[in-house]
Write a structure and sequence with these properties.
The structure is a single chain. The protein has one domain: Up-down Bundle (AhpD-like). It has about 160 residues and is mostly helical. About 65% of the residues lie in helices and about 0% in strands.
Length: about 160
Protein backbone atom coordinates (compact mmCIF):
# COMPACT_ATOMS: atom_id res chain seq x y z
CA UNK A 1 0.00 0.00 0.00
CA UNK A 2 1.28 3.43 -0.93
CA UNK A 3 0.17 6.62 0.75
CA UNK A 4 -1.94 8.70 -1.63
CA UNK A 5 -0.95 12.13 -0.33
CA UNK A 6 0.23 13.87 2.81
CA UNK A 7 -2.93 15.64 3.95
CA UNK A 8 -1.18 17.12 6.98
CA UNK A 9 1.34 19.04 4.86
CA UNK A 10 -1.29 20.05 2.27
CA UNK A 11 -3.74 21.42 4.84
CA UNK A 12 -1.55 22.28 7.83
CA UNK A 13 -4.06 24.62 9.47
CA UNK A 14 -6.75 21.92 9.54
CA UNK A 15 -4.28 19.24 10.60
CA UNK A 16 -3.02 21.44 13.41
CA UNK A 17 -6.56 22.13 14.66
CA UNK A 18 -7.41 18.43 14.67
CA UNK A 19 -4.14 17.72 16.50
CA UNK A 20 -4.94 20.45 19.06
CA UNK A 21 -8.38 18.91 19.56
CA UNK A 22 -6.80 15.50 20.16
CA UNK A 23 -4.24 16.94 22.59
CA UNK A 24 -6.98 18.81 24.47
CA UNK A 25 -8.74 15.47 25.03
CA UNK A 26 -5.78 14.28 27.09
CA UNK A 27 -7.14 16.36 29.96
CA UNK A 28 -10.57 14.76 29.68
CA UNK A 29 -12.40 12.53 32.14
CA UNK A 30 -11.54 9.48 30.01
CA UNK A 31 -8.55 7.67 31.53
CA UNK A 32 -5.60 6.36 29.51
CA UNK A 33 -6.69 2.73 29.70
CA UNK A 34 -10.11 3.62 28.31
CA UNK A 35 -8.53 5.77 25.58
CA UNK A 36 -6.70 2.74 24.25
CA UNK A 37 -9.88 0.65 24.19
CA UNK A 38 -11.73 3.44 22.35
CA UNK A 39 -9.01 4.14 19.80
CA UNK A 40 -8.36 0.48 19.05
CA UNK A 41 -12.04 -0.50 18.74
CA UNK A 42 -12.99 2.43 16.52
CA UNK A 43 -9.95 1.81 14.32
CA UNK A 44 -10.92 -1.86 14.01
CA UNK A 45 -14.47 -0.96 13.01
CA UNK A 46 -13.29 1.63 10.50
CA UNK A 47 -10.66 -0.67 8.96
CA UNK A 48 -7.92 1.84 9.69
CA UNK A 49 -4.67 -0.14 9.65
CA UNK A 50 -2.51 2.93 10.35
CA UNK A 51 -4.41 3.96 13.49
CA UNK A 52 -4.89 0.39 14.70
CA UNK A 53 -1.15 -0.22 14.39
CA UNK A 54 -0.37 3.02 16.24
CA UNK A 55 -2.87 2.55 19.07
CA UNK A 56 -1.97 -1.08 19.70
CA UNK A 57 1.67 0.01 20.07
CA UNK A 58 0.68 2.89 22.37
CA UNK A 59 -1.38 0.53 24.51
CA UNK A 60 1.50 -1.90 24.83
CA UNK A 61 3.94 0.90 25.74
CA UNK A 62 1.45 2.12 28.37
CA UNK A 63 1.38 -1.33 29.96
CA UNK A 64 -1.89 -2.71 28.62
CA UNK A 65 -1.89 -6.51 28.74
CA UNK A 66 -1.44 -8.07 25.31
CA UNK A 67 -4.28 -10.54 25.81
CA UNK A 68 -6.71 -7.69 26.50
CA UNK A 69 -5.53 -5.94 23.32
CA UNK A 70 -6.26 -9.12 21.34
CA UNK A 71 -9.67 -9.44 23.00
CA UNK A 72 -10.90 -5.94 22.11
CA UNK A 73 -12.31 -7.25 18.83
CA UNK A 74 -14.34 -9.86 20.74
CA UNK A 75 -15.05 -7.88 23.91
CA UNK A 76 -18.63 -9.15 24.20
CA UNK A 77 -17.42 -12.74 24.52
CA UNK A 78 -14.36 -11.92 26.64
CA UNK A 79 -14.23 -11.98 30.43
CA UNK A 80 -11.31 -9.52 30.51
CA UNK A 81 -13.33 -6.30 30.57
CA UNK A 82 -15.21 -4.67 33.42
CA UNK A 83 -18.83 -3.55 33.19
CA UNK A 84 -17.60 0.03 32.82
CA UNK A 85 -15.22 -0.91 30.01
CA UNK A 86 -17.99 -2.85 28.26
CA UNK A 87 -20.22 0.22 28.39
CA UNK A 88 -17.42 2.33 26.89
CA UNK A 89 -16.85 -0.22 24.11
CA UNK A 90 -20.59 -0.42 23.38
CA UNK A 91 -20.84 3.38 23.16
CA UNK A 92 -17.72 3.51 20.98
CA UNK A 93 -19.30 1.07 18.55
CA UNK A 94 -22.64 2.89 18.51
CA UNK A 95 -21.12 6.34 17.91
CA UNK A 96 -18.67 4.99 15.33
CA UNK A 97 -21.28 3.05 13.34
CA UNK A 98 -24.31 5.33 13.98
CA UNK A 99 -27.35 3.08 13.52
CA UNK A 100 -29.95 4.31 10.97
CA UNK A 101 -32.40 5.39 13.68
CA UNK A 102 -29.88 6.73 16.16
CA UNK A 103 -28.42 5.24 19.31
CA UNK A 104 -30.97 3.32 21.33
CA UNK A 105 -32.10 4.35 24.81
CA UNK A 106 -30.91 0.94 26.00
CA UNK A 107 -27.32 1.61 24.95
CA UNK A 108 -27.46 5.17 26.29
CA UNK A 109 -28.85 4.00 29.65
CA UNK A 110 -26.21 1.28 29.94
CA UNK A 111 -23.38 3.76 29.46
CA UNK A 112 -25.01 6.38 31.71
CA UNK A 113 -25.25 3.78 34.47
CA UNK A 114 -21.46 3.56 34.34
CA UNK A 115 -20.35 7.10 33.47
CA UNK A 116 -21.20 10.58 34.65
CA UNK A 117 -22.59 13.10 32.18
CA UNK A 118 -19.16 14.75 31.95
CA UNK A 119 -17.41 11.41 31.40
CA UNK A 120 -19.91 10.47 28.69
CA UNK A 121 -19.48 13.81 26.98
CA UNK A 122 -15.67 13.52 27.05
CA UNK A 123 -15.90 9.92 25.85
CA UNK A 124 -18.03 10.97 22.90
CA UNK A 125 -15.60 13.71 21.91
CA UNK A 126 -12.80 11.11 22.10
CA UNK A 127 -14.75 8.86 19.72
CA UNK A 128 -15.31 11.80 17.36
CA UNK A 129 -11.57 12.48 17.31
CA UNK A 130 -10.46 8.93 16.55
CA UNK A 131 -13.12 8.60 13.87
CA UNK A 132 -11.78 11.79 12.24
CA UNK A 133 -8.22 10.43 12.21
CA UNK A 134 -9.45 7.05 10.94
CA UNK A 135 -11.26 8.65 8.05
CA UNK A 136 -8.23 10.69 7.02
CA UNK A 137 -5.90 7.70 7.27
CA UNK A 138 -8.20 5.37 5.36
CA UNK A 139 -8.94 7.93 2.63
CA UNK A 140 -5.30 8.79 2.03
CA UNK A 141 -3.86 5.33 2.85
CA UNK A 142 -1.43 6.21 5.59
CA UNK A 143 1.07 3.36 5.81
CA UNK A 144 1.00 1.44 9.11
CA UNK A 145 4.22 1.86 11.05
CA UNK A 146 5.48 4.72 8.89
CA UNK A 147 5.44 7.17 11.81
CA UNK A 148 6.78 4.82 14.51
CA UNK A 149 10.09 6.62 14.98
CA UNK A 150 8.47 10.08 15.00
CA UNK A 151 5.86 9.01 17.57
CA UNK A 152 8.24 6.88 19.68
CA UNK A 153 6.27 3.74 18.88
CA UNK A 154 9.36 1.72 18.05
CA UNK A 155 9.65 1.28 21.84
CA UNK A 156 6.71 -1.17 21.66
CA UNK A 157 9.01 -3.78 20.15
CA UNK A 158 6.38 -4.76 17.57
CA UNK A 159 7.39 -5.16 13.95
Amino acid sequence: MTQRLNYYSLAPAFGKKLQEFSVALESSEVNKEMEHLIDIRASQLNGCAFCLDMHVKQAKISGERELRIHHIAVWRESTLFSTRERAVLEWTEAVTQLPPHGISDEIYTAVRNELSEKELTDLTFRIVAINSWNRLSVAFRNVPGSMDAAFGLDKAGLK
